[in-house]
Amino acid sequence: MIYTLTLNPSLDYIVELEEVKLGDLNRTKQESKFPGGKGINVSRLLKKMGVMSEALGFVGGFTGLYIKDYLKEEQIKTNFVEVKEDTRINVKLKSKEETEVNARGPQITDTDFSKLEKQISQLTHEDTLVLAGSIPSCMPSTTYEKLVAICKQNGTKFVVDAEGELLKNVLPYKPFLIKPNHHELGDLFNIRFTSAVEVIPYANKLVEMGAENVIVSLAEKGAVFVSKDTALLSNVPKGKVKSSVGAGDSMVAGFLAKYSETQSVEEAFRYSIAAGSATAFSIGLASKEKVESLLTEVNIIKY
Which residues are known to be catalytic? Predict the structure, then answer.
């Protein structure tokens, strides 16, 4: 079973309007509400691809109830730890430019975290845990390390989609997959990338530091996959970008869905690229049909 972990989920309120006029009345063209959070996005896209998962994390209040009900409606299993304060609401303004207003989120107590640790400790070598997104400001920066240490002890595969020190600090525990974008990778090594080929030596460094598989996305410049045995370069399909929200999470879900089916990292990488692009070309997460319609446009070469 695949488990996804979102420590700070949100109710994402997406507002489309012609133009944002500061200090004036703005009227929307269209509105929508979705459960937000990187791990939740992975679970939602896995379900669209016919792969079951269970969503873990912390929720509370009427917004937390909305998230649980929404995922139940999509037939996604959840096992959230209930907290006292409300799950946050994030506002996404879509106009000529994307603007996001992200709330801080509820307080997580030591008791809340102990309940989560107990859940993670019950996973086995047959399970995979996806840890995705940032750590709430009320939690220690070592939170991911504590959780992946439990995974390491139990033989549970784990995937980390995070940035900066959060990502760097889990590498010694040997994650199955990590997926930084080129900006996040550049920040780790204090370098700026202008092409996919330039990324490969630094992705290799992440493998040397402990990661089994590394995907680095470079927006319209393509993507790179590196493991100890393979280095692959890929283009990305052409299309109109409607929203970047969830594209990286879709890449993680696409890789896991196809790898669980084929055990081929190349096919999983191809599906990952198509999934990320399909979501970028959509409002909300992509459909399976949209993902598969883009597969023929993904060209992969071995480096």
Answer: 249
